[in-house]
Amino acid sequence: MVTSITPILIYVLIFLIPILLTFIGLPYHIRFMLKRGIYGVDIHKKEKPKVTEMGGIVILLSIIITSALGILLVETNVERFTIGIFCLTVTIAGIIGLIDDLVKLSAILKPLLLLVASVPIIASGFYHRLFVPEPYLPGVGQTRLTIVYYILLPLIIAVPSNSVNMLDVFNGSMASTSIIVLIAIFIANIVISGGNINSLDMTNVFVLMMVGTLIVFWIFNRYPAKVFAGDTGSLTVGAAMGAIAVLGQLEIVMIIAMIPFIMNSFGIIGSVRGLFERREMARPTKMTKDWKIESTRDSKAPITLVGLLIQNGPLHEKDVVKGFNILTFISGIFAVVTAFLIKMVI
Q1: CA 156/CA 299 separation, integer angstroms
Q2: Cα 261 to Cα 74, 257, 345, distances in angstroms
Q3: 3-class DSSP state for residue 50?
Q4: How many CB atoms lie within 10 A of CB 68?
Q5: pLDDT per residue over 269-325, tens digit each?
Q6: What distances in angstroms separate CA 275 from CA 98, 180, 279, one per listed residue?
Q7: 0.70 exceeded by the pTM?
Q8: Where do runs of H (alpha helix) occur along 104-229?
Q9: What is the per-residue pLDDT across 247-276, written as a single tens digit (0 to 9) for each?
Q10: Can you tell me the distance from the alpha carbon of 236 to that of 206, in angstroms, rounded to the nearest whole number?
Q11: Which residues on adjacent β-strands are paired with residue 302?
């Protein structure tokens, strides 16, 4: 087992390993799936290109392998156990996403199954005190929720997972917005913790692992996409964000950083008055003759973040994603500001 390795070197390795794994894995995945006819059609392109599905498998495998190597790199049992719980939580969500990609779970069953992904964290809280049910609030400091927190904890995993899934609608949208959120969380965590580089911060470890994976995935998923994440990818990434929030006591900061995701998901659920799969709902957008995205004006269509961005006229797909990124960047700034407010009272 590796010992006496500096935190900085661990951070570097945890960031570079998933970059390498994803960079090697995605091209192979793309070729493998296309040869077997497993692909989706990009409906937002005039040519209707065939795009490889379930690229999230590579994201999930990258996290699992990097977590296993991380367990070998860290020195304490608490750090090893924390990595294991994070990996297990993300893996459960990823497997649920994979099942959904293969057999299409119902809109009710999928979020219910995602509640199971929180079980490893709940169990670790009871038996190992891996996390403290005392989230930080700006202007208040550390709170103590105890029983209420454990009741709400399953939602802290399930809600981000579904929110990320619902925003994964255009080339690069899920990856780029998630990277922005994670960078904001990284900065916020440094602000709150004081950024001591001489001690290993597991929140930073998880954020760097996810950013490394997503940067490479974004390269292949950005416009024009060569691969789609599928529910395997979006649920994996969303569960990772939820786990990072819990394990790092950054619940409020994460909520603020993910405001565009939350607006989009609650807009959809509220407007259609329930949980439905995309294929079960009226399409909120359509393509113009010059292949821009515009609203369908269908009263039965859900209210989405896309609708907010195109209310003044049709936009190219790249411009819609750019709008997502700008809104997420703004919410990320608010998340960092929130971290400063929390730091003032702790």
Answers
A1: 31
A2: 33, 9, 28
A3: strand
A4: 12
A5: 887 776 666 766 778 888 999 999 998 877 787 888 998 899 889 999 999 999 999
A6: 19, 27, 12
A7: yes
A8: 109-114, 119-128, 147-167, 173-193, 202-221
A9: 999 999 999 999 999 999 988 888 777 666
A10: 13
A11: none
Model pLDDT for residues 83-133, shown as the tens digit of each residue: 999 999 999 999 999 999 999 888 889 999 999 999 999 888 765 566 777
Residue 283, burial from CB neighbour count under 10 angstroms (0-12, 13-18, 19+): middle
Domain ranges of the chain: 7-255
- Please name the helix (run of DSSP H) or strand (run of DSSP E) that holds residue 57, with its range, or none: helix 56-73
The C-alpha atoms of residue 260 and residue 331 are separated, in whole angstroms, by: 7
pLDDT digits (tens, 9 = 90+) for 15-56: 999 999 999 999 999 999 999 999 999 999 989 999 999 999
Residue with tokens 């500001």: 337
Choose among 180, 282, 169: nearest CA to 228.
169
Q: Are 91 and 239 in contact (CB under 8 A)?
A: no
* Cβ(283)–Cβ(296) below 8 Å: yes
Burial of 196 by CB count in 10 Å (0-12 exposed, 13-18 middle, 19+ buried)? exposed
